Amino acid sequence: MDNRRIFVEKRPGFRVEAESLRKEFNENLGLSLHELRLLNVYDLAGFSDGLLEKCRYAVFGETVTDTVSDHCPLAGKKYLAVEYIPGQFDQRASSAVDCVHLIDPNADVKIRSSRLLVFDDDLPEKDLAAIRHYYINAVESREKDLGQLSFSEQADVKPVEILEGFTAMQEEDLAPFCKHWGLAMNADDLREVVRYFTREGRNPTETELRILDTYWSDHCRHTTFTTELTSIKVDDSFVKEEIESVLGEFHDIRKELGREHKPLCLMELATIGARYLRKQGLLDDLEQSEENNACSIFVDVDVNRRKERWLLQFKNETHNHPTEIEPFGGASTCLGGAIRDPLSGRAYVYQAMRVTGAGDINKPVSETLPGKLPQTVISRKAAAGYSSYGNQIGLATTQVREIYHDGYTAKRLEVGAVVGAVKAENVRRESPVPGDVILLLGGRTGRDGIGGATGSSKEHTEASLESCGSEVQKGNAPEERKLQRLFRRPEVTRLIKKSNGPGYLAGPCPDQVQRPESDRTGHQREPGTHGRRHRGERPG
Known about the structure:
Blueprint: E1 4-10, H1 16-29, E2 37-45, H2 49-60, E3 66-69, E4 79-84, H3 91-103, E5 110-118, H4 125-135, E6 141-143, H5 171-181, H6 187-200, H7 206-215, H8 240-256, H9 266-279, E7 295-303, E8 306-318, H10 320-325, H11 327-344, E9 348-358, H12 375-393, E10 396-404, E11 413-423, E12 437-440, H13 464-467, H14 477-486, H15 490-493, E13 498-500, E14 504-507
Parallel strand pairs: 9-10
Antiparallel strand pairs: 1-2, 1-3, 2-5, 4-5, 4-6, 7-8, 8-11, 9-11, 12-14, 13-14
């Protein structure tokens, strides 16, 4: 079972993707390519001759449309080979392994995929360099050395470092430390962390610091929205009176709710309406619990002329920063991340909406801002990424809105919103207690690791495109679809006491499973904070 490599190419007449890519290079880079061949390359390990022959046209290609060859087509050719960087999730290879296991469940195989672009023989080196710069996004990919087979999927694993000298830092050390470690927190935040570990009498590990950095970032804590507003001034305009009137009403409501002593911030402005409506008795259908998932309301549903109590759940998520630096993965996991919250709420997600904002997609690539991807590249790949994830998980996107404005050239807009539903009696919302079983469900996605979600909370520079690769996941839609199907089973959801994305479950030990039927209705729950928090730009 030697390691080997195969090449898969569409037969003439089926090379739609290759022809589309050739036209894209010519149009956006001002080239005159006459021919472009596009091949999928697979490095294989653990395959016997017999297994490879069974898989050749059952896994890697189709008899009618593809040619699967063991021979490299590069003799005397100009080419570009591209592979994912180590640790980046390779869905094509992962799916191929799953398909091989359908043929031989006991096969111990490894697969690594890459793409091979073969050009005109006389392509100038400067044109090849332009294609290389345009086609390879350093956030996710790199040029592949075809001289050797490679099966390394993992990024380098290093021992967890104890941050020696952390508690000895002085005031002047804080800001440089934040910059050196690429933290989303600022010197003020770090000062409190230093004080805490000083009281603990020890230095933290890098893992502990990264966890705090994530939870204290805009991604989770919403520092921007909780910044205290010491004064609000309304400039002169034709709507000044209306704005001042609304502000006055806002302050009156704060007093009525007894919240005038609370810090005045944007989060208070955003949530005061729901608080007021609930006090007026107009939000009795809002479900509240300790879970921080999707917003959830009770509805009565007519099921075969019989009224049933259901939970209808809503969630939206932004992936502005991830989509800007890696469009396909950023947009796909925008949808995947939005799905995750009603899914964690035990709901089946059945409908989606996408709102996206871009600059001028017709601008020449040569006019792209330094450190940015071209607007047309972002827009096309983001549309493909969102579509890919939705198609794989089986979700209908019934509304798509694209907005074009020069302001989005500097900062991409990518919003995904979803709706889900679940029968109320199939959901329990309770607090975990010692002795409960905790499960972490899901699949491998990307290189983000602890701290990866903080990217949207940082100030970015021209170098961000190449340095932020660990902040964008590759979504794994098939795994999330498995969870969707699992959570449609009442015998599963009734075991779960609490669940929060991504994939954390807490439930009773086996001898604690039985509980009174009256406790399964979903109506007797302690009030909490459920449905009030939007978690911002996070990988899905």
